[in-house]
UniProtKB/TrEMBL annotation:
One of its GO terms (molecular function) is ATP hydrolysis activity. This is Peptide ABC transporter ATP-binding protein. Belongs to the ABC transporter superfamily. SUPFAM superfamilies: P-loop containing nucleoside triphosphate hydrolases. The keyword ATP-binding applies. It comes from the Bacteria. Keywords: ATP-binding, Nucleotide-binding, Transport.
Amino acid sequence: MTSVPVKGAVTEPVTAPAALLSAAGLKVAFPGRRGGPAARAVDGVDLDIGRGEIVALVGESGCGKSSLARALLGLVAPAAGTVSFDGAPLSYGARALKAYRRRVQLVLQDPSGSLNPRHTVYDAVAEGLRVHGYAGDERAAVAEALARSGLRPPERFFLRYPHELSGGQRQRVVIAGALVLGPELIVADEPVASLDASVRGEILALLLRLRDELGLSALVVTHDLGLAWNIADRVAVMYLGRIVESGTVEEVLSAPRHPYTRALLSVLPEAGGEPVVLGGEPPDPARVPAGCRFHVRCPALASGEAERAGAATRCRTAELPVLPGRGRGAACHLAPGQAG
């Protein structure tokens, strides 16, 4: 059992196997407009994903989720920090990245946009095999990937084009294209956001089945905490480039410790109470506010709760540290167990 003490944030011990994919102190920045300060899209993130584990990365649009996912995939090089896979730091040479992307695959949000309308289903799924110089039976590999994705009999779909498929079937083709290379981990960016409600459950059930059958790990990027509840083992809540709360799905969604997490949960239909409306938009990532980066929108500060707890000044001035990559944590001056 290990415990990582973090001053200014509540954390608890955790027992866990070695991570398959790990980020440590990860930062991603983009040039500012007209020579202004750089946008800190990812501003210090530790995150571990274990073998056979599904982690949901949750937050509003613009919070840095997709930038973090791209950095984990090696699509952007971090400004600082490291990404490690299977215990080895990620190398950014062309050959090393090609080998890495065979083991870690991306599933995009919009299947219509990620499938070439001029390619048949067979060609769409076989593309990865051809890029990586697969030497085995291509037809058998494509058929197996389609079957695992729920398109059976697979041969019936070989010569179809994307426009001839339903939205759910197109998403299954995208998943098959990721599975055909036998990856150990997939990064799914809003995998059901473009689908009808009736189809979402089927795709989520498919991802869970693939985890159980193949031992597949997954990072699911989403704005929907309800989706996280249905699919994830652990949840990491992101705001303005940082993870502000993490833990098992039961811990985070049943007993949230951060006001931002509580606000996200309040809008779910099953929440029951009044939705918490956050004022304004998230701050510009090129101008991250001092203190807790959520304080300018925090309901606890606006309501006087932070003042009554003697934490208002710390909320406005004392920066919170990066949470550890695993375990129960909340980067909030008002979280249970905080010292004054």
